């Protein structure tokens, strides 16, 4: 790259307050959640998935979803995102004031039935219903379909790539603004990530969405880099690596936000996130979930001597 050419920025979408918190047994008190979200925002994180709108009897960790959203939307410049599994959840999220809805649609037939008790085709119908609801209630709100188990499934095993691309296209046709790919159970490898995102971008163009990778087998960062090299510019990650999927056995371990931000910043790719403040944001997370394991190599090792964030001229 020419030294005068500015590097391409990436958007790191923090999913810990949703994906992380719904994957642990303990329930973080609401006040601690708000302090954590405030600390993430202060570090420069500009998109946070703050909650999941599901029945409290199923996920008591998310019982305060509306209250968390109402606080988060007061933070300047922050895109507040929530996961919704169906039309009822979408309506509650829209009424709370979210800026973006994300809907999980599993490429694995077995995982779809285990996760939401619906077939893939029925989930496409839900996407269509939510898109219509969004159009009527809040047309400015964006809707993303996250194609989960896109790289394999602990329940089903192999998930044919043709079915992944077909499903993503179906979701966009049904009204989703974009469709991203999720390595829900940590099966992906970099060659597979390159191949699938190349196909997704060929199929959907600028409607191809985020990469949501897990670090279950230690390949999370490598897979994010592979996606970046295929043109992906939005990446989900969780502070401290908190979270996984409760309906995919053995699937713990989101990509660690701190390590992902360090990788990109060390490469000279702008994230807009201050690493020191991001590492400091672990404090309210740990305080709110005492005893819960958190991960991250960068936070343990510290930043390299002479590392200056924002030095992009050498790229």
List keywords for this structure.
eight-stranded parallel β-sheet, 315 residues, alpha/beta, 41% helix, TIM Barrel
Structure at a glance:
By secondary structure, the protein is an alpha/beta fold. The protein has helices at 16-20, 30-42, 65-72, 87-96, 109-116, 120-137, 161-173, 190-204, 220-229, 257-267, 275-280, 282-288, 297-301; strands spanning 11-14, 47-52, 79-83, 100-106, 142-148, 178-182, 208-212, 234-237. The chain is 41% helix and 14% strand.
Describe the structure.
By secondary structure, the chain is α/β, with parallel strands linked by helices. The protein has one domain: TIM Barrel (Alpha-Beta Barrel). 41% of the residues lie in helices and 14% in strands. The protein is built from 13 helices and 8 strands. Strands 1-8-7-6-5-4-3-2 form an 8-stranded parallel β-sheet. Helix 9 links the parallel strand 7 and strand 8. Helix 2 packs parallel to helix 3, helix 7 packs parallel to helix 8 and helix 8 runs parallel beside helix 9. The radius of gyration is 18 Å and the shape is globular. The N and C termini lie close together (6 Å). The N terminus is likely disordered.
What is the approximate shape?
Answer: globular
| Stretches with pLDDT under 50, minimum 5 residues | 1-6
Mean pLDDT rating: 93
The CATH architecture is: Alpha-Beta Barrel
Distance between the termini: 6 Å
Order of helices and strands: EHHEHEHEHHEHEHEHEHHHH
Gyration radius from CA atoms, angstroms: 18 Å
What is the count of helical runs? 13
CATH T-level fold name: TIM Barrel
| Proportion of residues in β-strands | 5-15%
Q: Describe the biggest sheet?
A: 8 strands, parallel
Q: How many independent structural domains?
A: 1
CATH superfamily: Aldolase class I
Helix content: 40-55%
Structural class: alpha/beta
User: How many extended strands?
Assistant: 8
